[in-house]
Amino acid sequence: MGRGRVQLKRIENKINRQVTFSKRRSGLLKKAHEISVLCDAEVALIVFSTKGKLFEYSTDSGMDRILERYERYSYAERELVTTEIDQGNWSLEYSKLKSKIEILQKNQRHFMGEDLRSMSLKELQNLEQQLDVALKQIRSRKNQLMYESISELQKKEKALQEQNNKLGKQLKEKEKEVAAKQQQASQFSQGQSSPSFLLSQSLPSLNIGSGSYQARGGDNGNEEGNRTQTTRTNTATLMPQWML
User: Which residue, of 56, 81, 106, is where some domain finishes?
Assistant: First the structure.
């Protein structure tokens, strides 16, 4: 009887697992060396144990060179796959957009009243309903804009009216001030041209008998001088005001 097929599963016994790892690791490194020699292939092998210990093998070209080559190849493969996917997506997207553009152009011609022969009765009714709805929306928007424009003009008119009233009040106040100044100037000129003012300015005052005299020669002379002075004073008192 031949050997039965060994079932691959994790070895639960820790010692047996470590022994198996050592044997299989040695065999794996040996196989990697054999394939590199027999087939002239660049081989890089990296193994980490359960404890984190590193075991590696590489051909004469070196591990770094092989890993760098691997990175370039992986990047090129990813770019190629991405490009193919993008090209497929762009092709699908282009087809969708092209069909949408054709439908929009067809609807536009229908809205303009063109290419109506190919439309059925139901399609024409739907087109008529769409045009009615669009016309109602257009009229509603137009009325709204007109109402807003009228409201704005009314606000401007109100502001201008208020400004006009304010300027009118200021003008009336200025007119009152000018009239008051003119009235004061007229009264002043009338006062200067009156006869009493002219006489008081043109005629000098006369003082008759206002002089004082000193008599010589005793008491008789004094009494006579006093009588003369009193007489002159009384005469000046009895004279009119304009002769003084």
Answer: 81
Structure tokens at 82: 């991405």
Domain boundary among 81, 108, 132: 81
Answer yes or no: pTM beyond 0.85.
no
> In angstroms, how far is CA 153 from the centroid of its own chain?
25
Q: Which domain holds residue 164?
A: 120-184
Q: Quick one: 41 and 59 in the same domain?
A: yes
Q: How far apart are CA 15 and CA 50, in angstroms?
A: 12
Q: Is there a domain that residue 196 lies in?
A: no
Give the CB-side neighbour count of residue 65, counting CA atoms within 13 A. 7
Q: Does residue 230 lie within any of the structural domains?
A: no
111 vs 98, 121, 123, 126, 135, CA distance in Å?
Answer: 20, 15, 12, 11, 12
Q: Identify whether 101 is part of a domain.
A: yes
Digit-by-digit pLDDT tens for the chain (244 residues) are 456 676 778 888 888 888 988 899 899 989 999 998 999 888 998 898 888 888 888 887 788 888 888 888 777 767 666 666 666 667 777 788 888 888 888 888 888 888 888 788 888 888 888 889 988 999 999 999 999 999 999 999 999 999 999 999 999 999 999 988 888 888 877 766 655 544 455 445 444 444 443 444 444 445 555 555 555 545 444 555 555 5
Buried b (16+ CB within 10 A) or exposed e, 177-205: eeeeeeeeeeeeeeeeeeeeeeeeeeeee
